[in-house]
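REQUEST ID: PR-0412
SUBMITTED BY: lab tech R.K.
PRIORITY: routine
TASK: structure prediction, single protein chain
INPUT:
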Amino acid sequence: MKKFLLFTLLLFFGSVVLVNGQKAKWDDFYNTDRIQDISLRFKQSNWKDVLDSLKLNGEEMLIGSIRIGVKEYKNVGIRYRGSKSFKYGGERNSFQIKLNQIDKEQNHQGFKKIMLSNALRDPSMVREVLGFEIARKYMNAPKANYARLTVNGEFRGVFVNIEYVDDQFLESRFGSPDNTFFKCSRPDDDQKDGEGCKKKVSGTLVYEDDASCYMNNYEIKSEDGWDDLIGLTKALDGDIKKLGGVMDVDQVLWMHAFNNVLVNLNSYAGDYSENYYLYQDGHGRFVPVVRDMNLCFGSYKNVKFKGSSLSLKELQELDPFLHEDNNSKPLISKLLKDPYYRKVYVSHVKTILNDNFLEGQYEKRAKELQRLIANDLIRDKFRYYDHNQFLSSMTTTIGKRSKIPGISELMASRTKFLKKHAEVRGFAPEIGEVNFLGREKLSNKTVKSFVLNAQVEKHAKKVRVYYRFSSDDLFKVTYMKDDGNNQDGKAGDKLFGVEIAPEGDSDMIHYYIVAENAVGISNYPNDYMFKPLTVTLEELNK
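STATUS: complete
OUTPUT:
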């Protein structure tokens, strides 16, 4: 009876489930609450030796077949991936798989590439899935879940299934895959800095006089775009107020806040300024896209100028303004020196804390993910850590040499530290009731413009409304006033108002509000990045 009821409910609701509070199809390839079954098959019995050789000698792929669930795809390209995580003769190397290696149109649910991570240096097995899940709340970040991998009939273990940042990703997030695209990662160990080039720059976006100096530190993924990248670093080297013309500064500040709160130092925040992409959107602005989360939550512990790896206490008390005086990391130091951007950054730190850490939300979610994979891990004979280490990895440091912090061991203390930090605990304005003025009852007078009111408490000095009339447009900004002359009631009553005239034949406005006082910033709504509010003139005239 119970099985019949469940089957009936699935039919009725169309196999849609809630994943992290949002609707997701049960058969979604990256559904975080489902483990994918992936089976690879090679004709060669010595496939491991062949993949080792291909990894060490060029970029060729071994042809094989793949079954995902019940669907099989032939003539796919397969090779090992990773640089530091690859081990010659290793039993648990990561995989990259090209479904369209031969048939250029072959795909699974629109995805033509598959990336399986071995979760190196993550005894908890949740860093990547949880890290990306948190990042996606605020940024354009890859999806990730788990996969049970079988090769030539042998179970090879539980891997993390991570969405490729490729044409399909760029099309889905930015509407086009054809713009300038760079991968920012550390140079190979044997790669030399060019004569006259700054030393060990990696992906810092430090400006170089010689264009050839960029070649060692950035991997171009588009057909061209070097001039765009150089223009970005030149803008960053100049007047920071003009940076918004060539870079989505708000997304950069979200990236910095995410890296810092989650102690994700295998990133721009660490010693090599690596593991992110830069993609130029349709408005000519570079947008960062984070990658590689297996070392977040303190598994990587180097910030260069401090020398050796940070201790657990240093990770727990990592300065939220790390690198603010480090001129070799201008994307942090230049932005945090600007008073307004600094407040925006602090606001993002607080939002990430409130959404994920202050009430232990991350810990609950991490335990859910661990329960999902626990039984499969028991039969994973190639995994890096035993079951006791997996079970204790939330609360205990694992390893005598690497010393990988327990996630809650790190984040419980870190959350308390950040909450008490002088700038983070500052009182930002409170945005209360927000309304648009509609047509008065029994009136024949049509509302032809958008008149917005917002009640804002706690000493707001500036209240801005960001608005646009199409989802394809950039947001414009104007100020709301509390002077008695802008549909705002009486002067000084903390009710701010503004009137915005529609452009052309536009009927709908998309908007969000940013309130600022002497010490902080608040946003309304908090998820304005992906879900700005909307209202139409038709609604206001009902």
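NOTES: Residues 433 and 473 are 27 Å apart (CA to CA).
REVIEWED BY: pending
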